[in-house]
Every structure is written in structure tokens, then in C-alpha cells.
Design brief:
It is a single chain. This protein has one domain (17-134). With 145 residues, it is mainly alpha-helical. Helix 2 crosses helix 4 (100-106) and helix 4 packs parallel to helix 6 (128-134). It is built from 6 helices and no strands. The chain starts with 16 loop residues before the first helix and ends in an 11-residue tail after the last helix. The protein is 66% helix and 0% strand.
Length: 145
């Protein structure tokens, strides 16, 4: 098994080549082709092909968003559990005030710096990009969808 490249703020976004570079572009090209074919030849078969292509594209996009939403819910749960162990009692009662986006950004913070970032996120209403920029010791997430 190859070594994992250490994750940082600069390289933490993840693209799935099969999805982002093949499946979606192929569906988009097929949809364009089917619509052009429908405009040129307004037969039932051309309309069915265009409709089925559109349905397949929507299905592919929805399947991706559903998996990302489940992932976000799991991250939210994991972070609440982790923070409940790391935070003081006074901070722990405020965990539910963190937004989903803040929790997702906080997952990259090492345990030692998470409490201070949580306090700043709650008191200053930090945006996820700001939270990520403030992280000094990046904690990689290598299991994302």
C-alpha cells in the first residue's frame, strides 16, 4: 500500500476522478447530444432518449449529494463526541451552538488546538474557511467520500 500524502489546508479537497472527470462530463455530453438530436428530429424516440439522459444525470448528481450529506452527518456526530471529551464543562454545554459547517471545519484541528478554535468559532462566529486557515496542526481526514 502506498504512503498517504500528508493532508494540509491546501490539498484537503478531494475529487473522485471517475465521478468528476468521467461520469458527469459523459452524462453532460450525452444530454447535449440528446437535446440536439431532439431538436433536429422531434420523434418519440429522441424525446425518450433526452428524458432518460436527463434522469440519469439527475440520479448521478443526487446520489453524490446524498452520500455527502450522510458523510456530513457522521462528521457532525463524530465531532460532537470528540469535542465533548476535549472541552471544559463551560464549553461543552455550547457544542450544539456550533453550525454543521463549523463542526465539519473543526474536524481538521488537532485535539490540542480544538478547544481554543471552538471558543473563537462560538464567540466570533467564524466561517469554515477562517477556521481552517487558523488551524496550526492539521489533522487529516483520509476517509471522505
Amino acid at each position: 500500500m502506498s504512503e498517504l500524502i500528508p493532508q494540509t489546508r491546501e490539498n484537503h479537497t478531494r475529487l473522485d476522478p471517475a465521478y468528476h472527470y468521467f461520469l458527469v462530463p459523459a452524462y453532460l455530453l450525452l444530454l447535449i447530444w440528446a437535446v440536439v438530436d431532439l431538436v433536429r428530429d422531434t420523434t418519440t424516440h429522441a424525446a425518450i432518449l433526452a428524458a432518460l439522459t436527463l434522469l440519469a444525470l439527475v440520479l448521478a448528481l443526487k446520489a453524490r449529494t446524498y452520500s455527502l450529506k450522510v458523510q456530513d452527518r457522521l462528521i457532525r456526530l463524530e465531532e460532537r463526541l470528540r469535542l465533548s471529551m476535549l472541552l471544559s464543562d463551560s464549553q461543552r454545554v455550547r457544542i450544539n451552538e456550533l453550525t454543521e459547517a463549523q463542526l465539519i471545519a473543526l474536524r481538521f484541528a488537532a485535539d490540542a488546538e480544538a478547544p481554543a478554535l471552538v471558543a473563537r468559532a462560538l464567540n466570533e462566529g467564524l466561517k469554515p474557511k477562517t477556521i481552517k486557515a487558523l488551524i496550526q496542526s492539521w489533522r487529516g481526514d483520509y476517509f471522505r467520500v
